[in-house]
Specification:
There is one protein chain. The chain is α+β, with helices and mostly antiparallel strands and 554 residues long. The chain has 2 domains: 366 residues, no CATH class; 85 residues, Immunoglobulin-like. 53% of the residues lie in helices and 9% in strands. Strands 2-3-9-5-6 form a 5-stranded antiparallel β-sheet, with no helix packed on it. A 4-stranded antiparallel β-sheet has the order 1-4-8-7, with no helix packed on it. β7 and β8 form a beta hairpin. The longest helix is centred in the N-terminal third of the chain and has 28 residues. The radius of gyration is 26 Å and the shape is elongated. The two termini are 33 Å apart. 46% of the residues are buried.
Length: 554
């Protein structure tokens, strides 16, 4: 029996990770679990709205046509699309979006554990340490806070790709094999969550900086360059349109103070006590857990005993974990940093990195300090970690009248000075002019408005991002017209089949001009910009080349 276990140890460990993930996911089985709390409603609404846009418009779903009172809202142009399309794909095989959401987050929990396991086994070469790291990682209180309390899907999915980024970097710096994991992890992060990408980039640069002497090696330079090229080209379908949109028009999300200020970031830092004790007062869980604290406390002792070949990366993980904790608190000088850094909003986002780094250091500490460390020790520590998180089940919220997303009013702007709207968040992805004219959006009808001049408009038909009408200009002056679409790049306006120029009106909508006594058939469609379409081609070709590259490497 022992020989069978040893022979199939890798498979058995993967099965254990899946079983622990199933246990941690038991609350998802409760149909009354309120997945709409905090960010949850936004992510599920976005998936539903994107699904409808694809179904109704048969076009690039950068703009969710049914949101913003039917004038369109562009989540997908500014926010990574991976989690949204993950839910949509699963929805094709399930009954509703809540079920699809739950299946998606469950799969992400398994993957985050598996990729952590893969990274640590490559690094340490020990099945027990790798398994313990994976279980500590998926059961880390902040990891499950993102899943069950915050429902912060973008940040939660980032847990899947962080181990792959560092697996790729470790392989580049230490083994020169299978460095392509860096591309997979980095692309996954880029198309999932912008803020997590920035945070991981910071620590990745720190890791490379601490190994700067290795950069002079030809194979290391080559591997880094190859991965950077693949990362940029494969993900360009997302970041190129994002940059174009930022240049194309002013959007509210980038306005100073919209998301946060340095002062507000500083104020939202954690108190030290929150790392040790959580109050059941509606706040989130940020504590590390006594098992993590105890294992961290013996780090100095472990450093003295561990082999030199694992010490460099271990010390980096330990220091980076401490830095992450420091940055999550009120005691980090956020006020002294540039205003642009305030887009992070909440310093405690850094707990995502603390979860990663401390899961590694704690498992290595146990491996180094426990005599004859083996499977039994992994089981004992894992049980403590997993059952400790069960104590937080009282933080979960339930709703017996939880409605399907199809039955909830989404994306309706009321015109209030400040509001959080299901499907729109804080309306931060509106153009600045549209954001400043939300009452106009709330009261505007769904047809063409004549801003200046005179015209007869007949046979108006609007269906999603497709619009047609017959327009006849009256008088000898030109006429300015405003379409019932908020100004996002990618709309094509044709008059009698000829593309005409558009501009942003004072209300943040799409405007165009017709000449005197003009008579034309208007047709509007969302077709994307040239940059959008070219970037999709580049990404597709790069993905194929990357697949061939990985296959040849294997």
């Amino acid at each position: 029996m022992k020989e069978i276990i040893l022979k199939n140890r890798n498979l058995i460990n993967i099965i254990v990770i899946i079983l622990v993930s199933i246990f941690l996911s038991i609350p998802l089985l409760n149909k009354n679990l309120n997945v709409y709390v905090d960010d949850g409603i936004q992510h599920i609404s976005r998936a539903y709205g994107t699904y409808l846009s694809i179904k109704d418009n048969k076009s690039i779903p950068n703009v969710i046509s049914s949101f913003s009172n039917g004038f369109g809202y562009s989540w997908n142009l500014f926010y990574g699309p991976l989690s949204t399309f993950g839910i949509i794909i699963i929805k094709l095989f399930t009954s509703n979006f809540i079920t699809a959401y739950k299946i998606f987050v469950f799969l992400c929990l398994i993957l985050s554990g598996y990729f952590m396991y893969k990274f640590i086994y490559n690094y340490i070469g020990n099945y027990d340490v790798a398994l313990l790291s994976a279980i500590l990682y998926i059961s880390f209180p902040y990891h499950l806070t993102d899943l069950y309390i915050r429902h912060a899907l973008g940040e939660y999915v980032s847990f899947v790709f962080i181990p792959l980024v560092f697996l790729g970097l470790y392989n580049i710096l230490y083994t020169s094999s299978k460095h392509y994991y860096l591309t997979i992890g980095a692309v996954g992060l880029l198309v999932t969550h912008n803020l997590s990408t920035i945070i991981v980039l910071f620590f990745s640069a720190l890791y490379i900086g601490l190994n700067i002497e290795k950069i002079n090696k030809t194979n290391v330079k080559k591997s880094l360059i190859v991965n950077i090229i693949f990362i940029l080209t494969i993900s360009c379908f997302y970041w190129m349109p994002l940059i174009e949109a930022k240049i194309f028009c002013k959007y509210q999300v980038y306005e100073p103070g919209m998301m946060a200020t340095r002062e507000s970031v500083q104020d939202k830092g954690l108190k030290i006590t929150q790392l040790f004790v959580s109050k059941n007062d509606g706040s989130f869980v940020f504590e590390l857990g006594p098992h993590i604290i105890v294992m961290l406390a013996v780090s100095i002792m472990a450093i003295r005993l561990m082999d030199d070949e694992i010490k460099e990366t271990y010390v980096f993980c330990l220091i980076s974990g401490i830095i992450s904790i420091w940055m999550s608190t009120k005691y980090f000088p956020w006020k002294l940093l540039p205003e642009e850094i305030s887009i992070i909003q909440f310093p405690w986002r850094m707990m995502i990195m603390a979860s990663f780094f401390f899961s590694i250091t704690c498992s290595i500490n146990a491996y180094v300090l426990v005599k004859k460390f083996d499977y039994k020790d992994v089981i004992i520590i894992s049980c403590i970690a997993v059952f400790y998180t069960v104590a937080f089940r009282g933080y979960l919220l339930y709703d017996e009248n939880l409605a399907n997303i199809e039955n909830i009013t989404l994306g309706r702007i009321s015109g209030k000075e400040s509001e959080a709207i299901a499907g729109l968040g804080k309306e931060e992805y509106l153009p600045v002019k549209a954001y400043q004219n939300r009452f106009y959006i709330a009261t505007r009808d769904d047809y063409i408005d004549i801003i200046e001049g005179s015209a007869i408009i007949q046979n108006e038909i609007k269906k999603g991002t497709h619009y047609t009408a017959d327009i006849k200009v009256e008088g000898e002056n030109y006429t300015i017209l405003e379409l019932p679409y908020i100004y996002y790049p990618g709309y094509e306006v044709r008059l009698d089949g000829m593309i005409t120029d558009t501009f942003e009106t004072k209300n943040g909508f799409i405007g165009f001009v017709m000449g005197k006594n003009d008579n034309a058939k208007l047709e509007v469609n969302y077709v994307g910009t040239k940059i959008m379409n070219v970037s999709i081609i580049i990404s597709s070709i790069s993905l194929i080349i990357f697949g061939v590259y990985v296959w040849k490497k294997h």
